[in-house]
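Friendly challenge for the regulars: who can give me the structure tokens for this chain first? No prize, just bragging rights.
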Amino acid sequence: MKAMRLVMVMAVLAACGGKKQEDSTTPIVSQVGQDSTDPEDISDEGMVPPEKMEEIQRLLERRRPAVSRCLSAAVDAKELPKSARGKITLAIIVGTGGRADSVKVINSTLESEILTKCVVEKVHEIPWPEIPKSYETTYSYGFEAM
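First reply, four minutes later:
Bragging rights claimed.
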């Protein structure tokens, strides 16, 4: 029994390792050479902050009721049947001046010039946040006639 305890204690000590390593507060990256960069030195200037990206997505979502009325215009003009349903996906480039530089339909399951033009116009009307550089995103609107 004593021999088993001795073996267990020795195993625990062996697992703990040997000499304690000294803690180093100097990042390994800065020890490599002059060409390396410290993550704290990287500037966020010129990047679109995540909260602005989220705000852009919320603005697109908030515009959904106005965009959904575009389907009514296409149905009223007889470009689409009353039972029309589908999706339009947009590629949007939000510029630095609080406006959309570009809004393009990249995919649509509904073939209607009136619908497409209306959706693009509604997205162009959105007052975008001020951002340090242009931001590219995509967004899809779903449509279902009643």
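The longest strand covers residues 85-94. The domain at 50-144 is CATH 3.30.2420.10 (TolA/TonB C-terminal domain). Your move, everyone else.
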